Amino acid sequence: MMKLRFAWMLVVLTGAGWADRIAGQTAGPSPLVGTGAAAAVVPGRWLAHEAWANDALRAGFSATAAAIYREILAEPALPEESRQRITLALVSAALEQGDTKIAEETLRSYNGPRDTGYQLRAGLLAAHSRRTAQARVAIEAAAGNVDDLMPAERGWWYYLQALVADQENASGRRNSMFDQAIKSAVSELQRARFTLGLEQSQLMAGQANEQRLQTLRNNMERIQGTSLAYDFVRAYAAELVSLGRKGEAQSEIQKQLAALPASRRDTADQLRLLLGLIAGEDSEAGRQAFRQLLREGQKPGTQRIALYLLARGAGIPTEREQVRRTLDELIGAPSPHPVIEDLLVVRAQLALADRLYDQAEEDARMLLERYPGSERKAAALGVRVTVAWELKRYRTAAEAITQLRAVLLPGRERSELGVLLAEAYFRAKDFRNAADAYEAALSEEPLAVEPGKLLFQRVLSEIRAGRLDRAQALLDETAASPVFDPVNRWQAEWNLVKEMQLSNQMEAAYARANHLLDGAGPAMPPELRTRMLWLRAKLSFEAGKLQADPGQLQTTLRLVDELQSALQSGAATVEPALRSEVLSTAQLLKAQALLTLGRDSEGGGLLDQLRTEYLGSRAAQESYIVQAARFSQKGDVVEAQRLLIKLVDEHPASEYAPLALYEAALVAERLGLDRNLNDAYKLLERLCHDYPKNEFVFYARLKQGDLMQKLNEAGVARQFYEDLINNFAQHPEEVRAELALAACLYGQSASSVTNYERATAIFERLRDRVDAPVDLRVEAGYRWGYALEKRGQIEKAQVVLWSLVDTFLLDAEAAAKLGATGRWWVSKALLELGQIHEDLKQLDEAQRAYALISERKLGGAALAEAKLARFRTTAEVR
After folding, report:
1. Which of 13-27, 66-80, 164-178 has the lowest mean pLDDT?
2. Cα R_g (the chain), whole angstroms
3. Of 790, 19, 36, residue with least CA distance to 488
4. What DSSP string describes 363-415?
5. For residue range 807-834, what is the model confidence (pLDDT) as tens digits?
6. Could you tell me the end-to-end alpha-carbon distance of the chain, in angstroms, rounded to an integer?
7. Sign of dihedral through CA atoms 117, 120, 123, 128?
8. Which end of the chain, N or C, is less packed with Cβ atoms under 10 Å?
9. Whole-angstrom Cα distance, residue 414 to residue 288?
């Protein structure tokens, strides 16, 4: 964004009104404010996505979780600690998918500490790959530090030992470890996952052989129909699987199910689960078994296993849609399903996986409303957080995060959500709450993000909230703190000084830059110090120009010379690209100072040299606009326009080209003749045609409408304004197009009641729009009152005009928000109101209206004083 960078040029070329309008829209960076100096890395995005992936993994969507983890790991700015944690999470997701190769590769890429979390994954990977000795080594390495595991990981610790015991044929220890895993589960869904592991282990238990197989078959047939017979059926099927005869195993189970009496529903559940496990969740036979188990199962625990496996097998959209249809049927049944809360969470996760956010939100909301005490409440709130975050509804996300934190115990997940809460407020532009939330996040254990980054974000939030004094105090308080690392601390200082500059606190900004560069606090990184030296010179120039102080401008020249000397001598060690940028922008700054001092020959020579030595650089391109501004200031508008068009012709891809065309059009407009207005129109058309996505297109079209009015083409002007209203409905300046349209309609209202009614309706609406700029609301109100007066609606005009005075001038808080333009329109309202009172012979009220102009030091004070003097003269004559 270039608006603030060129605000002062716009003042020179067009007057303060347009400068304020364009510059006020965004806080774009000044030269040398690269990403390295402007902001620390904010963790919000990957924290939100990590929470989403964790929830997906817990719900059985391991493929979805793995995809999200990979997206996060692709983030180049991901902090190392987060990268290590998410790498281990990806290992877990790959293991759940059964992809030991990917799990192995991912674990090899891990470069963090070999702590208990690492040993747990290494052990699980070894056990899944049947490398029992390696798994045993991992268990022994972590044995004394199991308490370091997160609560949700501890059950997996016992699960790992169960797998190792199974491979060592220690069935008693295996069953004991599985039992401990199930008891340590932190949710019903995790309990179901560990029970599934036990079932799978039993399915593969024992050493299969044909003799044992025949014995099992004989026993199964000998006592057919009894409870014990079905135990032999399960053992027989498992033996067939061990011998590689899965098809025969499935056929035998299906035959037994077909003959099973209706009274043996528990047995049917066991056989269907076995059938599904043998067929696998990636096969239609397996999915059919799990669907039937989910529909007809007798035990919620078994149904949760089936639900988990259906979710785990739904790796592609068509499979997810099939599962979704099953869940739709069960959730929509007349009586609640035994695991309805789990069904709702899984359906929400299915919707999230396919980016069906409205459906996901609806399921989460349904669970929270119908089952407020549900164990799955945290999962539902997690869905709501993800939906709100992905849709960029950050205030809604903040509300959901607050609710989710309330149901979680202290720990890493809750701490991470504290940081995410602060980030949500920050992105919602609720900077005061963001600052408070970052402060709270700094006091939580364990810290989810490096404290230096949190401190930086807290300072930045205070700055964005306009509380520069608090930001400055916080930086002063933490200057010597070891947790505020130098990089983040100096980035925060840079942002504070820049905001002081943008807030016109030039002297304070200049003083702080001097204070910082004189050695306050820890050593400043070389790159940031170079940037700060440049900024100090820039602030010196702006202060000297603002105060018309030649001495300060001479100081600017000295500071630039010192900066250039340090860079050219090698005393300041920075990257070559930054060195070139600083040298070129410093030379531009020096030229600006010389031009402001009236030393045009020296300044112009430096600009010519800049364009030669740094051909094509941003500073060289900007130099055309700087020099054009100087020519315009001296009245040589032809030369100013020539330079601006030359910039566009020679550097059509320049980021400054759209601005140059816009400025050239304004210069042409100032010349005033019809041919000049047509030239201005053509320049703006070129801007819109060549740079259709540029931010200046809106302003160019708005100005084209104004030009058409000056050329007496009101119908064409109206079309421009209406197109802007229709095509730029979300633009922050859209209200200006509405005001221009209303003014245009009013200009055509002499013979059209319809135009008059449309115009006054727009004026009224804009006056009352609390989200519109204050100055614009006052202008709209004045135009409305004026229109009413000219139509003979005197009383209503009085009410409208007085409302502007009462609302925007006499109210101290509102008056403080008035800009120069708004004060001018209030003055016009008072003059108009005074004249109405005069015409009605209400002379006291007229005098009071004129007196307010002088008392409040508004524009038009001389005219008001003249009117008041006339009253005094009349009184003396009497």
Report:
1. 13-27
2. 37
3. 36
4. HHHHHHHH-TT-TTHHHHHHHHHHHHHHTT-HHHHHHHHHHHHHHSPSSHHHH
5. 999 998 889 889 999 999 999 999 999 9
6. 64
7. negative
8. C
9. 39
Contact 82, 43 (CB under 8 A): yes
In whole angstroms, what is the distance from residue 526 CA to residue 706 CA?
50
What the block records as the tokens of 753 is 């009641």
Crossing angle (nearest 10°) for helices 486-502 and 506-517: 160
CA–CA separation, 467 and 452 (whole Å): 20
Cβ contact 725:741 at 8 Å? yes
Distance separating alpha carbons of residues 607 and 590, to the nearest angstrom = 9
Give buried/exposed letters for 77-106 (b at 16+ CB in 10 A, else e).
Answer: ebeeebbbbbbbbbbbbbbbbebbebbbeb
Query: If you search the block for the tokens 């010349």, which residue do you land on?
Result: 671
In the three-class reduction of DSSP (H, G, I as helix; E, B as strand; rest coil), residue 728 is classed as coil
Distance CA 837, CA 820 (A): 26
Which runs of consecutive H residues, i.e. helices, occur in 524-636?
526-546, 550-569, 576-596, 600-613, 618-633
Tokens of 165: 């015991």
Other beta carbons within 10 angstroms of residue 222's beta carbon come to 10
In whole angstroms, give the CA distance from residue 197 to residue 220: 25
Report the candidate in 388, 453, 466, 455 with the shortest Cα–Cα distance to residue 427: 388
**Which position has the token pair 């069904």?**
343
Structure token digits, residue 478? 């933490």
CA 210 to chain centre: 64
Q: How many CB atoms lie within 10 A of CB 633?
A: 16
Given its phi and psi angles, is residue 30 left (phi above 0), alpha (psi -120 to 50 degrees) or beta? beta
Q: Which of 224-233, 510-519, 581-590 has the lowest mean pLDDT?
A: 224-233
- The answer to whether 40 and 488 are in contact (CB under 8 A) is yes
d(CA 5, CA 585): 13
Helix axes 526-546, 576-596, angle to 10 degrees: 10
The residue count for the chain? 878
Say how many C-beta atoms besides its own lie within 10 A of residue 849's C-beta. 25
Report d(CA 716, CA 714) in Å as an integer: 5
**474 class by beta-carbon count within 10 Å (0-12 exposed, 13-18 middle, 19+ buried):** buried
3-state secondary structure 173-217: HHHHHHHHHHHHCCCHHHHHHHHHHHHHHHHCCCCCCHHHHHHHH
- At residue 321 the predicted structure's pLDDT band, cuts being 50, 70 and 90, is very high
